[in-house]
Amino acid sequence: MAELKPSIIVIFGASGDLAHIKIFPALYSLWEDGFFPDSFFIAGFARTDMDDETFRKTILDALNVNCRKKPINEDDFLNFSKHIFYLKSKYDDESSYKELGKFIKSKASEYNIPKNIVYYLSTPPNVYIKIIDGIQNANLTSSEFKGDNFSRIVVEKPFGYDYESAKDLNNKILSVFKEEEVYRIDHYLGKETVQNIFAFRFSNAIFEPLWNNKYIDHIQISALEPIGVGFRAGYFDKSGIIRDMMQNHMMQLLSSVAIEPPAIFHADDIRNEKAKLLKSIRPFSLNDVKNFAVRGQYDRGFIGNKSVISYKEEKGIPPNSTTDTYAALRLFVDNYRWAGVPFYLRSGKRLKKHKTEIAVFFKKLPYSLYGKDGMEKIKQNSIIITIQPNEGISINFGAKTPGFKMDIEPVNMVFNYKSSFKLSPPEAYERLIYDIIVGDQTLFARYDDTLIAWQFITSIINGWEKIEPPVFPNYEAGSWGPKEADDLINADGRLWNNN
Ligand code: NDP
Ligand code: BG6
């Protein structure tokens, strides 16, 4: 891959968690791998009182914990840190943006580089509007720069709180930036294994012909985590898992596994197909919400051998909270390819196992040559796309056991990233930041697919507000989730893939 163009990356909320856990580790890895030219600069923009040196020290400490290049070499960091500056600022203060403008101008003229700017919104979402106003009022967008410059804006999730607020936020951003300058991050799209879904489907002749309702019985998409709410109580209690995971990551996984092949592998062609797919999800009536949208909240329990507290006992969570820490949905995609194939989606915190996967189950044989026994043992062929951990793909089928008897047993054919490529894949944020600077929007959500996903999820949220919530907590920490989620899939004669 080529060296990136000279650019200035402005991180709003640079003193915060995300900047230290994900953004700087990704920037450092890109720099170590030689992607940045000498003329690149990072400006941290935040209120905390710090100078450049103190800020750089917080970054070094964070890299030593969170960066895949750790332990960090001191000389390398010293060179990297010369590109980092800190602007102690206020998000609603005109003079802070004037200072930012001066910083951009001085770096651009000192190094004789174009004003290529990436504005990265890494503050809580309630600050976004102030920042966009600040950028606009100080004339810091590309339309204000002359020549071959770009200015791009990166927006973190959650993108809005519901359909209406997402629409308002979109309108606000698009009143200042053009759609082709907007990068809505969904870090799942930056994961190697998620990108591999397209390669698996569209670069092989043997899978795509089976990828439809003629051969596929059902698809399960799971994102299960043993971690609890952690230090994010303030954010999470207002969101719940339905907004935190379902609206974005789960909808993106669903569209990646189910879209039609795009005309060409280009950002807008792929995103057109995604929008089409999301539009084909059958809307939920209130009755569907009651029957096909399960919510749960974790109780005390054990993660491994460690006893953990319930959601309501977590620091910062109200003791009467009715927020969902688990959700499971059964939905249908009403189009030619998927008519009649149920998609089961589930995601939750404090579950038994860390596993993010897409499990594609094929229809049963119409008839078994090996009698009832053979039928029982082979059950269903399946393809399991493991997104994390142990990234890979396995194909499960029946094979004859060695010996004189015609005995069939299920076996796995496994592709595993580590053993096949002997490389650890880059972090999702590395790939995404690289693409932002290159100007490739393929792995970013577009305004319409964000809104279509919100429309579907908002109908569930609104439905839940109308019906009595279950008695929470309703699942033990360290379990597979609430019994109602098992009932949801068992009612169709199927089981969750809990291997
Ligand atoms: P933080 O709460 O750490 O906030 C980031 C910075 O924003 C803070 O250091 C603070 O900087 C400033 N800030 C915080 N609260 C306010 C406020 N009420 N008004 C003005 N400024 C404030 O957030 P994160 O870094 O965790 O997340 C940033 C964004 O990324 C959020 O939108 C979040 O939803 C999203 N995100 C975070 C993830 C994570 O793992 N942390 C994962 C995925 C998305 P200062 O006081 O110095 O100005
Ligand atoms: C974030 C959610 O977007 O994704 C978190 O806000 C969740 O609640 C996280 O834990 C999961 O990401 P990953 O990459 O660890 O699967």
Q: Could you explain how this protein is built, in words?
A:
The protein is α/β, with parallel strands linked by helices. The chain folds into two domains: 150 residues, Rossmann fold; 302 residues, 2-Layer Sandwich (Dihydrodipicolinate Reductase, domain 2). It is 37% helix and 21% strand. It contains 15 helices and 17 strands. The protein has an eight-stranded mixed sheet with strand order 8-11-12-7-13-14-15-16, sandwiched between helices. A six-stranded parallel sheet has the order 3-2-1-4-5-6. α1 links the parallel β1 and β2. The radius of gyration is 24 Å and the shape is globular. The model has no long low-confidence stretch (mean pLDDT 94). The structure holds NADPH dihydro-nicotinamide-adenine-dinucleotide phosphate (NDP) and 6-O-phosphono-beta-D-glucopyranose.
- Quick one: CATH class of the largest domain? Alpha Beta
Record the strand order, biggest sheet.
8-11-12-7-13-14-15-16
For the record, give the distance between the C-alpha atoms at the N and C termini, rounded to a whole number: 38 Å
Annotated CATH topology of the largest domain: Dihydrodipicolinate Reductase, domain 2
Average pLDDT figure = 94
Report the helical percentage: 25-40%
Whole-number tally of structural domains:
2
CATH superfamily of the largest domain: Dihydrodipicolinate Reductase, domain 2
Net shape: globular
Q: How much β-strand is present in the residues?
A: 15-25%
How many strands, which pairing sense, and closed or not: the largest β-sheet? 8 strands, mixed
- List each distinct ligand once: NADPH dihydro-nicotinamide-adenine-dinucleotide phosphate, 6-O-phosphono-beta-D-glucopyranose
Uncertain spans: none
